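Team,

Forwarding the record for the chain on the shared tracking sheet. I've put the sequence and predicted structure together so nobody has to dig through attachments.
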Amino acid sequence: MKRLKSLLIAGVLFFGTMQTINAQAKTAHVDVNEIISKMPAMLDSQKQLEKLSATYDAEYKTMAEEYQAKIKKYDQEASTVTDAVNQTRQQEVQDLVKRITDYRDNAQKELQKKESDLVKPLMDKIRASIAKVGKAKGYQYVLNAADLLLTDGPDLTADVKKDLGF
């Protein structure tokens, strides 16, 4: 009976110790923002987006200048033309405003789509690299340093950069 009691107590202590060991999972952190900001492919993507944005901005500016010119011209000639002409011009200006607004909205959507198309594969690559490095170093959890209040622990940022080739 005494032996059974001792065995039972030893078993409880053993399983309690195992639970404590399992609860102490290894964690590390990585600064995803730093990786993104220094990643050559991301820098190339940003340049592509800036170029596309500049193209859209130039076209938008041209359309806005056309609008301003028409408004100025129509204001100057409003008193010298018939009401029918003024109404036609007013409709023309409204159509131009709609075209400009639609262009701006479409340009924003296209930029967002392009950004998503360029950034998603890079983020997937970063995530895969973080998982690979974390597993290779024996970590169960790798957290983003930007989401942490305290980053006093292993930092895998340099290892992930090395794995990504920069």
